[in-house]
């Protein structure tokens, strides 16, 4: 990952740059900044919502808090009142400079570390809590970056566009249930905290928002993420089609064939044996036979991904691994 450049101002483009100081403060800020709505910059003008976000994080005096997209720093200032340290990641240099001004010469200055750059490309230091008014473009990458931290945060309080938040929460059979739903719920517990109407922002975004709490499971499931995600990618290509339909795709068979050859070569090497490849046609037919066998034996051949839960997908993954079929 690219090492983020630390400067005396912040990183991560603020999704909806938060304002907690009422209409006068918002108006003053707007006179300085022309907010980039393409980056999701919308000021949250309702101080009760902002305070609610901070309160739901249950920040301890010893905590280090990562804030993604602090904007002009209105939410940041509230976090600084409770945390030992705040690491603020901001994409927009103008926002970063404004945040620097707000703490300059104040006690909070020593507690704030501002990083300017692309949050997704940053190597992150240790932090206990993440709070984010999330830029819509990085919603999914942000969630998975947090889940994949070597030491994930104790809790993340994140604001997203309403539909994205509902995808995180969706259950089998729901219209918004998707690969994202299954993936996130495997690695974390997700709960809905509050709805935030579009009129709470200036300028109002085109969609409603929601705040969710994400708590990474501890201990983590003993599953290889790439294997798990590889299976889900195939199953959810068309979530309302049968599982077997996804495995009939030629490119899917080619990937499984390549992985199977790697698997056989690894087994041979572990036993000090030479691996001899089968002719391509024979190998392709073998993979198709194994796939059909697994789908028939598990009873998932005619099932649809949108109706299956975590346990179902775990059974499917285990059955494929038993016959040497891997997805990463």
Describe the structure.
There is one protein chain. The chain is of the alpha/beta class. It has two domains: 37-216, Vaccinia Virus protein VP39 (Rossmann fold, 3-Layer(aba) Sandwich); 225-323, Helicase, Ruva Protein, domain 3 (Orthogonal Bundle). The protein has twelve helices and ten strands. The strands form two sheets. An eight-stranded mixed β-sheet has the order 1-5-4-3-6-7-10-8, sandwiched between helices. Helix 10 (250-270) packs across helix 11 (280-298) and helix 11 packs across helix 12 (310-322). The protein is elongated and about 70 Å long. The two termini are 21 Å apart. It catalyses: adenosine(1779)/adenosine(1780) in 18S rRNA + 4 S-adenosyl-L-methionine = N(6)-dimethyladenosine(1779)/N(6)-dimethyladenosine(1780) in 18S rRNA + 4 S-adenosyl-L-homocysteine + 4 H(+). Keywords: Methyltransferase, RNA-binding, rRNA processing, S-adenosyl-L-methionine, Transferase.
